[in-house]
Design brief:
The chain is mainly beta. It has one domain. The strands form 3 sheets. A 6-stranded antiparallel β-sheet has the order 1-2-10-7-12-5. The chain has a 5-stranded antiparallel β-sheet with strand order 9-8-11-6-13, with no helix packed on it. A hairpin with a 2-residue loop joins strand 3 and strand 4. The longest helix has 6 residues. The protein is globular. The N and C termini lie far apart (about 40 Å). Belongs to the dTDP-4-dehydrorhamnose 3,5-epimerase family. This is dTDP-4-dehydrorhamnose 3,5-epimerase. It comes from Streptomyces griseoruber. InterPro entries: RmlC-like (IPR000888), RmlC-like_jellyroll (IPR014710), RmlC_Cupin_sf (IPR011051).
Length: about 180
């Protein structure tokens, strides 16, 4: 497994494993504390794992947490997703930058998203399972949502949106959130 910096988002990393494939399928290490530590992150900081299952076209996000924020590791464990990160840390050298990724169950690449960045994704396959490892207990009172179709962000979602939560449908613009 190797770690690669994401140039568009300061402090973000892609952790790229080496899947071993044969006639049975594949095996791959999806988390390695030593590799995480090698880029200055504390592997013990991650305290909660979650998974979501989405069908093609489902859009989740853009989400972030207020207060101290929330750092997370995101991986598509099955299927494929179009993943988006927006840097909303005012003191960051990449403030308001966006980065786009295709994460897939075939590669098992994990994306590290620093606290203070918004995150969202769209399922590209019939089924897409997305795994999250976060560094704080979830507190719904700190949830912040930004409109996925905000013209200021101009995110090139690859598919028509087939479904999203009511909260995501009613999300305010980036300008309203930053007020």
């Amino acid at each position: 497994m190797k770690a690669r910096e994401v140039p568009e988002i300061a402090g973000a990393y892609l952790f790229e494993p080496t899947p071993y494939a044969d006639e049975r399928g594949f095996f791959c290490r999806t988390f390695d504390a030593d590799v995480v530590r090698s880029v200055g992150l504390d592997p013990d900081a991650f305290i909660q794992d979650s998974v979501s299952r989405s069908v093609r076209g489902v859009l989740r996000g853009l989400h972030l947490r207020s207060g101290a924020g929330e750092a997370k590791l995101v991986r598509c464990s099955y299927g494929r997703i179009f993943d988006v990160v927006v840097d909303l840390r005012p003191d960051s050298p990449t403030y308001r930058n966006r980065a786009f990724f295709e994460l897939s169950g075939d590669t098992q690449v994990t994306l590290y998203i620093p606290a203070g960045c918004a995150h969202g994704f769209q399922a590209l396959t019939g089924t897409a399972d997305t795994s999250y490892r976060i560094d704080r207990p979830h507190d719904p009172a700190e949830d912040v949502t930004i409109a996925h179709d905000d013209p200021e962000l101009a995110i090139p979602w690859p598919l028509p949106v087939t479904s999203m939560s009511q909260r995501d449908r009613e999300a305010p613009s980036l300008a309203e959130v930053l007020k």
